[in-house]
Structures are given as C-alpha cells and as structure tokens.
Amino acid sequence: xxxxxxxxxxxxxxxxxxxxxxxxxxxxxxxxxxxxxxxxxxxxxxxxxxxxxxxxxxxxxxxxxxxxxxxxxxxxxxxxxxxxxxxxxxxxxxxxxxxxxxxxxxxxxxxxxxxxxxxxxxxxxxxxxxxxxxxxxxxxxxxxxxxxxxxxxxxxxxxxxxxxxxxxxxxxxxxxxxxxxxxxxxxxxxxxxxxxxxxxxxxxxxxxxxxxxxxxxxxxxxxxxxxxxxxxxxxxxxxxxxxxxxxxxxxxxxxxxxxxxxxxxxxxxxxxxxxxxxxxxxxxxxxxxxxxxxxxxxxxxxxxxxxxxxxxxxxxxxxxxxxxxxxxxxxxxxxxxxxxxxxxxxxxxxxxxxxxxxxxxxxxxxxxxxxxxxxxxxxxxxxxxxxxxxxxxxxxxxxxxxxxxxxxxxxxxxxx
Length: 416
What we know:
By secondary structure, the chain is mainly α. It has 20 helices and no strands.
C-alpha cells in the first residue's frame, strides 16, 4: 500500500512538472508579447491609437476563433488540444523570426504581430482544457500549482525584461520569444496522453445512476443560443467578464504610459508586472484548499470586486507606490478569477462542452480587450490618462453588478 501511494505521488509530481513547464514557457512569452505589446509597437513608430487598433483587431479575430476552434476540438476528430497548441507555438516562432527583420516596417509588423498576439490568446483556453483532458485520462496533474508557477514564470520574465529592453532595445523581446517557443515546441511534442483511461469507469457509473452528464445521448451545445439555454448563469456572467477585462486590459496594454505619467520607465514596468504576477502564485497553488471553503461561484464574484478596486486606485495615483498598490490587487482579481473560472466550467458543464466553456471565458476576456483597445488609445491620445481610467472604472462597476445578478439570481446546473 505504501509503495502504491509513493508511486502515485511520484506520478503526480512528474506530470505536474511537465505541465508546469508548458505553462512556464507560455507565460514567459505572454510577458514579451502581450505585456510588452505597447512597448514593442511604440518602439517601431506606432501611435497610441494605432496600437489600440492593432490589438483590437487581433482580439476580435481571437474572440471569434476561440469558440470555433473549441467546437472542432470538442468533436474529438483529428484536431486535438495538444496538436492545436503545437501548431500555435510554431506559428508564434515563425512570426517572431520574421519580425526580427522587420524593424520600423509598420506595414509588415502590423499583420505579423497581430497574428502572434491573436494566436497566443487563442490557445490559452486549450491549454486549460488539455489539463482536464489528461486528468480524466489518468494523469494526476495538480492544476493550481502548475498554473501558479506559470504566473511565476511571467513574474520572473517581467522582473528582468524592463532592464533588458533599456540596455538592448526592443529586439530582445523577439530573441526571447524564439528561444521560449523552441522549448515550448519540444515540451508539447513530448507531452503525450497516458495510455491508461479512467473515463470509462466514470461513464459507466454515470449511466448506472442515471446521471445525464454521463449519458451518451447528450450532444454538445454546438450553437451559442443552445449554450446560453443550457448555462444561463454562466452566459450572462460572461458579459460581466467582458467588463472586468475591459478595465484589466486597459491597465496592462497601456501600463507603460500610466507608469511614465507617474515618473517611471521600462524598468518600473517590469517591476509592476513582476509584482502582480508573483502574487498569483500562492493563490493559484492553494486553489484546491480555497475551493473547500469557498465555491468557485463566490470566488468569481470576489475577483470582480477586486478588478474594480484595482483600477479605482489608479484614478487617484500620484506616484509609483500607488501603482504597486494597485498591482497588489492582482492577488484577489486575476489570480482568483483564472483558476476559479476553470473549476467553475469543469464543475458545471458536461464533458462535451468543457473546451467550449473554457474558450468562452477566454473569448469574453478577449472581447473586453477589443473594446478596451479601441477606446483606450483614442481617449489616451485626446484626453489623457485619468479620463481613460475613469472610463475603465465605470465599465468595470457595471460588470460587477451584472456578475452578481448572474451568479446569485440565475440557475446554474452542477455535475454530480
């Protein structure tokens, strides 16, 4: 018995480490592509408005693509979670190489950067779905720890990236992307699903108890209206998510301008990103324990309020200390939202809607980014920092109201 426990523990550690490395490479590149998007584009001659338009277009395509990709993967054909992730990594690698030779060529940079920005967002929910897919196939991955260490990778990259940009210029971002994507491709290529299947037992148990979630008669909710009918609380909550991430993306995409307004520069940008990312680690690592005390539904509501507090602080910020205080709210905002949303989808949705559910969360995040990109750059160019932040605060507050109504007033089915 002791040998079995030791073997099971070793297997869990090994699988979690492998999935953690996939997350680590993803979020290291997320820092250089997404967190530093404005730095890279402004350094290549783009205006704030042009940055907003480029990111908005990338987000629009990503928001449309994510549910479509999820629907194809849910059908369990040739396109699997793992294969799509590998394809995405190779596209980002190729795009980064092309950008190395496109300095100040805005006509070429625009579509290539938009493509890699878009596709990196598109495969984020697929990575989450991959974890739950492998868990059901017998891989004992601890999602919270792996995802939290992914954020730690973002934090470590952020801590150094600002200084590296100041010393070596914006091309350093592309060199890091290339190295990280090569490593990521190797990790994904060797990350194979275990041969042992545990889903058969779960399915037979569900059938014997008459649980509709395990019934083969149930079909995926392929259309969005059908999905809304099946999951009304979740579907309305997605509108709130759009509002949360309107504010969140406003801060992240234009953080360099906010920091410069407070007297900082690229180095302080790195420190600010490090702070918010490193704070995600303890929450995500302990999410299993936290969920024993608070439901994923309650955690999602807490995160919405934290997003609101985070941007409100910046309206009144006068120095970098206030910026760091705002970033500390990440502990209850993004750090809580991401794992709570993943577990909420896993708990409330049928297996054949899992990838789609994860994709709709990321689509809502992306749509929030679309509106933020389109509006924020224009406000910033014409009115300044504070009007932009006030706009974000109002939108986020509306999202909090919608979120509370969706989660507390509308029905949500739960798997047994």
